[in-house]
Amino acid sequence: MENFTERKEYVSKLLSYKDKDLIKVVSGLRRSGKSTLLELYREVLLKLGVGKRQIQFYNFELPENFVGKNWDDIYFDIKKKLQVDKLNYIFLDEVQNIPLFEKLVDGLFATKNVDVYITGSNAFLLSSELATLLSGRYVEISILPFSFNEYLVARRIDTSNKYLNYELLFFDYVNETSLPKGVELREGGYDKIYEYLEAIYATIIEKDITQRHQINDKRAFGNIVKFIASNVGNALSPNNISNTLKQDGQTIHHATVERYLEYLTASFVFYKVNRFDLKGRKQLATQEKYYLVDMGLMNIFAGKERTTDRGHILENIVYLELLRRGNKIWTGTSRNSEVDFVCKTKTGDIEYYQVTWQMANEKTVERELGALEKINDNYPKFLLTTDGFTQSRSGVRHLNVFNWLLDTIEEV
After folding, report:
1. Which of 39, 67, 208, 258 has the fewest CB atoms nearer than 10 Å to its CB?
2. CA 274 remoteness from chain centre
3. pLDDT tens across 343-370, in order?
4. Same domain? 219 vs 139
5. For residue 179, what are the domain limits?
6. 307, 230 in Cβ contact below 8 A?
7. Which stretches make up the DUF4143 domain (predicted)?
8. What are the residue ranges of helices labelled H in 267-358?
């Protein structure tokens, strides 16, 4: 077992659904740690006193588990080993490798005393299509690569040390990778990480997207990926992407751009954030923003000449953290200002977040604080920056972003 962070929030999420009459689906980017999560959860079950024989774990990336077998062969194999009159926990990892896997999952779900957990990389099969495929009720637990906090734990950095240079560590985090295996490769030098990320990118783009959706113009697709990666945090629309590429001499119809964007978000490479009109209190249908699942992939997409400024990179990391913490997220817009994130928390409350690298001058202070002060409601408003010295005013809480990411903010 890798000596990794325990991914506590995801394990406790799985525990909260334990023995409930639901299929548990763990989704997320390839290599974001789904299999490891199931293994960690299996360890927890054993510690809780579940007998070894009550747990069956199948990794369908291993050919011996599925080659030459139909779904029903696997179903009866599993059924033979079930412990009668005890609860059984069945883990099916990378289940999409089995043709008609949904019949296997539904069959197990209908079987008495069986609790089913599945993972799959190919997101299409595991998000938009899930409801149609699985007739059983399911809950989807979407996992992200390491947070900044988990990254530091994985690197065995003692965060209780008051004199840590968080800025340097943060640059490591965004320039290398947040993918669990990639962090393990650090000792071999950056080239190892780069090769690893290239391989993941190739698999996602080649296998999960271009083959599956029969995209013939790979160059156009690659250019769109590069364009979005270079524009994280900027408002984009299929139309303006199509027009920008046209100026570069490439003709890609906006409907094609839209389709490509859907494939990329369904494979968990990018996350799309809709705009919210603060005045009219409604979601708008244009000019969405996109954020990247792992900043290390930026080096692969946009090449070494990545130009994304550190403010947008910080915004991307804050977005992923808000997502990890269970928020629904929009970007806020009104006639004369923009707010980076409008969040609906797990408890249904509203919170506003503005993110900027640092309060360099009075102009920045006015712009960033002003955007939040213009919202006239009493919901919490936060300004996150890398400044060591923070200045809250008129109801806006200015917080150091590294403390916020590590969740070491004292509640007021």
Report:
1. 67
2. 16
3. 999 999 999 999 999 988 888 888 888 8
4. no
5. 150-405
6. yes
7. 206-355
8. 296-302, 310-324
What the block records as the tokens of 339 is: 């707010």
Residue type, 74: I
The answer to whether residue 353 sits within a structural domain is: yes
Provide the number of structural domains found in the chain. 2
Same domain, 280 and 255: yes
Task: Give the SS3 label for residue 73.
Answer: helix
Residue 126 sits in the same domain as residue 156:
no
* Per-residue pLDDT tens digits for 282-336: 888 778 999 999 999 998 987 765 666 889 999 999 999 999 999 999 999 887 7
Say how many C-beta atoms besides its own lie within 10 A of residue 11's C-beta.
Answer: 16
Phi, psi torsion values for 382, nearest 5 degrees: -125, 140
Helix (H), strand (E) counts: the chain: 17, 12
On whether the CB atoms of residues 397 and 383 are closer than 8 A, the answer is yes
| pTM attached to this predicted model | 0.92
Q: At what angle do helices 238-247 and 254-266 cross, to 10 degrees?
A: 120
Same domain (yes/no): 324, 397? yes
Q: Give the span between the Cα atoms of 89 and 386, in whole angstroms.
A: 45
- Boundary residue ending a domain (113, 143, 173): 143
